[in-house]
Design goal:
CATH superfamily of the largest domain: NAD(P)-binding Rossmann-like Domain
Radius of gyration: 26 Å
Structural class: alpha/beta
Number of strands: 14
CATH class of the largest domain: Alpha Beta
Strand order of the largest sheet: 3-2-1-4-5-6-7-8
Largest sheet: 8 strands, mixed
Order of helices and strands: EHEHEHEHEHEEHEHHHHHHHEHHEEEEEH
Distance between the termini: 60 Å
C-alpha cells in the first residue's frame, strides 16, 4: 500500500472513532465506518464538520480532496479492500478481541490492523487473530483530528515491520507516532495522566482545592510549559546551567516527603462524586459539551500554530505535515476562505492574498522538483519581487483557486504570473507577478539552478510561451 491509506475501515464510531474518521477523511482517505449505534452517522457527521472548521483555521496548506465517509451495515463490508483497519470499540477485552479476530479473517492479507485501546495489552487483543503479526495498538488522544500523539505498542506476536509501517501511515496524516518500548498497562501517556488524576481527586476529597482550582494550577502554570517542553526538559531548565544533575540533587530528596497520596486512591463515595460533579457544572459556566468542544478546538488550533512558528514539539509535527501537503498540492487546488481572514472592513485582509499566491508558488516549485531533498542539497528559489493587483473583493466562505503561468526564466531567474479565481468564475479576483531568484543556501548567493530542476524550468517556460501574455503582466504603479 502507499504510505497514506486510500481506504480505511473504522470499527466503532464513538468519540475516538468519529475523531479518526475526521482525520482520515480530511487527509483524503476513503472511510467505511461500522457502528450499529443508531446515532453513529449523525455523530460522525457532526465531528467531521467541527474538524473541517478546525483544519481551515489550522493550516494554510491546501488539503487533498476529501475522502468519502460511508456508514456500512457490517464489519465485513467495512474491512473489504481496506488498507488500514482501526478498531475503537468500548474497553472490553472480549469485545475487542472478537472484533479484531473477525476483522483479521475478512480484511485483505496485507491490511494493517490497529486498536485504539487506551490501556489493554496488545498480546491479549491479538490472541485470536490468524495473522497477529500485522496487529499493533495505535492509541490516539481526543480530539483525534487535532492532537497529533498516537502511541504504538506491539504485542508478543507483532512483526517489527508492522510498527515501522504504522509509524509511516500515521505520520502521513499529520500525527506524531510514539513507540512504546514494551508492553505495559496504560502505555505511557495514560499512566502519567492517571497519576495526576489520582492526586487531583485527593485534593478535592480533602477539601484542599475545588476542581476549578486544580485545573487553574495546571492551565496557568506547568500546563503551558508541558505543551512544548514536557516534564524532563522542564526540570532540566529548573536546574540552571548544571541541568538535571543539580535539579535532582536539590529537589530529589523532596520525593521522600509525605506530600502525596499517589499510591492510595480515595473511595468515590456518592458525596465525593456529587461534590466533584457540582463544582464541574459551575466551572463549565453554562456551556454545553458541544460548546466546550468547539472552544477546545479553537484554543488548540492557536496553540498548535504558536508552536509551529517555533517548529517545536507538536508544532514541528504540524509543520512537517504542512510541508507534505504543499509538496503534494496540484496547481489550481481549490480551497475555502476561513472567516478568520476577514478584517475590520468586512473583507479578507490584503496579506491573505499574498498567502494564497505564496502557496501557489510553492506548488509550482514542488512540481518542478524543488522538494525536501533539493532543499537539503542547498538549492532553493527566493522571491525577490512581487506586484499584487486587487481587482475584486474576496469574502469568507469563497472557494478559490490560483492559476500560474511562467512568463520567462533563465538559469537563475523565474518570472511567474498568478491569477486568483473564485471557483466556477472566469473574472480574476486578484493577480500577482513575481520574480524568483535561485539561491545557493550555503553561501546565500544567487546560483544557477541544479538538474533536473533547471531542465524542467526551461521546458515549462517553452510550453507556457505559447499561452497569451496576461493583460496585467508588467504593469507599473502610477497616477497617470
Amino acid at each position: 500500500m502507499s504510505v497514506r491509506p486510500g481506504s480505511v475501515a473504522l470499527l466503532g464510531g464513538g468519540v475516538i472513532g468519529a475523531g479518526w474518521a475526521a482525520r482520515f477523511v480530511l487527509n483524503g482517505c476513503d472511510v467505511r465506518l461500522y457502528d450499529p449505534a443508531p446515532d453513529a452517522s449523525a455523530r460522525a457527521t457532526e465531528v467531521l464538520a467541527d474538524a473541517r472548521t478546525a483544519f481551515e483555521q489550522l493550516t494554510l496548506a491546501p488539503l487533498p480532496p476529501e475522502g468519502e465517509l460511508r456508514l456500512v451495515d457490517s464489519l465485513e463490508e467495512a474491512v473489504a479492500g481496506a488498507e488500514l483497519v482501526q478498531e475503537s470499540a468500548p474497553e472490553r477485552v472480549e469485545l475487542k478481541r472478537e472484533l479484531l479476530a473477525a476483522a483479521d479473517r475478512a480484511a485483505p492479507p496485507d491490511a494493517l490492523v490497529c486498536s485504539s485501546t487506551s490501556g489493554l495489552r496488545p498480546s491479549e487483543l491479538q490472541a485470536e487473530m490468524e495473522r497477529p503479526e500485522r496487529f499493533c495498538v495505535a492509541h490516539p488522544f481526543n480530539p483525534v483530528y487535532l492532537l497529533p500523539l498516537v502511541e504504538l505498542c506491539a504485542g508478543e506476536r507483532t512483526a517489527p515491520e508492522t510498527v515501522e509501517r504504522a509509524q509511516a501511515v500515521f505520520r502521513s496524516v499529520g500525527m506524531h507516532p510514539l513507540v512504546v518500548r514494551g508492553e505495559i498497562d496504560g502505555f505511557l501517556a495514560d499512566r502519567l495522566l492517571e497519576a495526576l488524576w489520582r492526586e487531583a481527586l485527593w485534593l478535592v476529597h480533602d477539601g484542599v482545592a475545588t476542581v476549578e482550582e486544580v485545573d487553574d494550577a495546571i492551565r496557568y502554570g506547568a500546563g503551558l510549559r508541558w505543551a512544548f517542553m514536557g516534564t524532563f526538559l522542564t526540570y532540566r531548565i529548573a536546574g540552571g546551567e548544571e541541568g538535571m544533575r543539580h535539579f535532582l540533587r536539590q529537589f530529589g530528596p523532596a520525593l521522600e516527603w509525605p506530600w502525596t497520596h499517589l499510591t492510595d486512591v480515595p473511595k468515590l463515595t456518592d458525596e465525593l462524586v456529587e461534590t466533584i460533579a457540582a463544582q464541574s457544572d459551575a466551572q463549565a459556566g453554562g456551556l454545553s459539551a458541544r460548546e466546550l468542544e468547539r472552544l477546545r478546538d479553537r484554543v488548540l488550533v492557536r496553540l498548535l500554530q504558536a508552536l509551529r512558528a517555533e517548529e517545536t514539539a507538536a508544532g514541528a509535527t504540524l509543520a512537517a505535515w504542512e510541508r507534505g501537503l504543499l509538496g503534494a498540492a496540484r496547481a489550481g487546488s481549490v480551497r475555502s476562505i476561513p472567516a478568520e481572514w476577514v478584517d475590520y472592513n468586512g473583507h479578507v485582509h490584503e496579506s491573505r492574498y499574498l498567502d494564497l499566491f505564496a502557496d501557489a508558488t510553492d506548488a509550482l516549485l514542488a512540481a518542478l522538483g524543488v522538494d525536501s531533498d533539493y532543499l537539503e542539497g542547498g538549492g532553493s528559489y527566493f522571491t525577490v519581487e512581487t506586484h499584487l493587483s486587487h481587482l475584486r473583493q474576496l469574502e469568507a466562505g469563497d472557494r478559490v483557486h490560483v492559476t500560474t503561468q511562467v512568463l520567462d526564466s533563465d538559469d537563475k531567474r523565474l518570472h511567474v504570473f498568478h491569477v486568483l479565481l473564485r471557483d466556477g468564475e472566469a473574472d480574476p479576483l486578484a493577480t500577482a507577478e513575481q520574480m524568483l531568484l535561485h539561491v545557493d543556501t550555503g553561501s546565500g548567493r544567487a546560483a544557477p539552478s541544479r538538474e533536473p530542476v533547471g531542465a524542467r524550468v526551461a521546458e515549462l517556460t517553452r510550453r507556457h510561451a505559447a499561452l497569451p501574455r496576461p493583460e496585467r503582466a508588467g504593469r507599473s504603479i502610477g497616477v497617470s
